[in-house]
Amino acid sequence: MAATSERTVSLWDGKVTARVKVAGQGPALVFLHSGYGLIWSEFLDLLARDFTVYAPEHPGTSAGDPDAIKALDDLWDLVLYYYELFDKLGLDAPAVAGHSFGGMVAAELAATNPKRVRKLVLIDPLGLWRDDAPIKNYMVATQAELDPLFFHDQNHAARKLVYMNPEEPDSVIRVTWALGCTGKFIWPVPDRGLRKRIHRIAAPALIIWGREDGLTKPVYADDFRKLIPGARVELVANAAHMAPLEQPGAVASLIRDFAKT
Fold it and tell me: What is the count of structural domains for the chain?
């Protein structure tokens, strides 16, 4: 495991204490996590070999600070919050990678102020909606319902990193609250108008999709490609929605080759 440190910075007029895990060396890369909270896994260890990885915890998901989410009311608050975080970390225009919920936020950051994102990586992102491929509300679905959507290999060891364990009360509270803190910005569907402003993205963009993603089906990858000028898509075999956990080497390699230069 890569050696990680934690930085804390005061944001939003002192109302939020942001916690950011930092590891590695090289060009800055900000990673925005999924709705399940920050999971430091092999995937981020691999990225830390080539980048200085900054992995912020979404407000409210940090241990001991559940009320931090109350300071942010809507998506625009969240976008401005992240610009403020970039400023406090001394990151003018880093590469930004986001997975699922974090992918939606990354796209919004790159569209709202194109100068703040040097390169953009979206991994199975939320943010768009198609009536012919509806996205299941994973916040209220059971593990049995989510397994085939999240993991191509439903016996994959990384499953235990995502789901709550009823035998561990702390796990149940942590996952439930993380889903609530992120769900605040996508309920009832994760379409907050990104389609109208996504054309503003100027950063070179790589879209990575688990070929077997059952939550945000690969048809969405083509939508993102068409909507973001110059974007390209890479499909990852033997991976579903949790591609960074299921195929960490393949996803990290694609990001390295794209964002290192």
Answer: 1
Concatenating the DSSP letter of every residue in 1-14 gives: ---EEEEEEEETTT
Helix, coil or strand: residue 24: strand
CATH of the domain at 90: 3.40.50.1820
* The pLDDT value given to residue 1: 72
Residue labelled with tokens 């974090």 = 102
Burial class (CB in 10 A: 0-12, 13-18, 19+), 41: middle
Determine the Cα–Cα distance for residues 233 and 258; give it in Å rounded to an integer.
12
Domain membership of residue 24 as a residue range: 4-259
Sign of CA dihedral 211, 43, 251, 220: positive
Q: Give CA torsion, residues 136, 72, 62, 239, to 10 deg.
A: 30
Name residue 11's beta-bridge partners: 16
C-alpha to C-alpha distances, 131 to 16, 198, 200, nearest whole angstrom: 37, 19, 24
Kindly report the pTM of this predicted structure. 0.97
Tokens 């198609």 — which residue?
130
- The whole-angstrom separation of Cα 91 and Cα 98 is 16
Q: What DSSP string runs through 61-96? A: -STT-GGGGGG--SHHHHHHHHHHHHHHHT-SS-EE
CA end-to-end span of the chain: 25
Cβ contacts of 25 within 8 Å, gap of 6 or more: 51, 52
Q: Could you tell me the mean pLDDT of each successive run of 10 residues in the chain, 261 residues long?
A: 92 98 97 97 97 98 95 98 98 98 98 98 98 96 95 94 83 92 94 97 98 98 98 98 98 97 78
Contact indicator for 232, 98 with CB cutoff of 8 Å: no
